Amino acid sequence: MPAPQAPPRPDEFTLQTERLGPLPLINHFLERIGLEGLLDKYVASADRRCTVSHAGALGVLLRSILVEREPIYRQGETVHGFGAGQFGLDAEQMRRLTDDRLGRALDRLFEADRAGLLTEV
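Below the sequence we write its predicted structure tokens.
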């Protein structure tokens, strides 16, 4: 007869909940069309020191429009409300995402060859 096991200590287990919403489905289709690669190609980040690339910031903005439609200044809060990685950013990038970063990415998108980008998409 097996020996009875002691009940787990309270500090052994933690409950972690993450909000996913439609993001797994949206991410599947964005990966399938290779949007992040295309954005990297057409809206390349000039400064490699940035932790969030222009393509990453535009990916966050696109996902946010599809999911929440929050204003640009609330994107940081929107990203933190969902599960890790669901917006295409890791934890460090999520902390560094600001409305200024999104604005610079939108400026670069405006300057990019949007016709070529749309043709490839």
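The first helix runs from residue 23 to 33.
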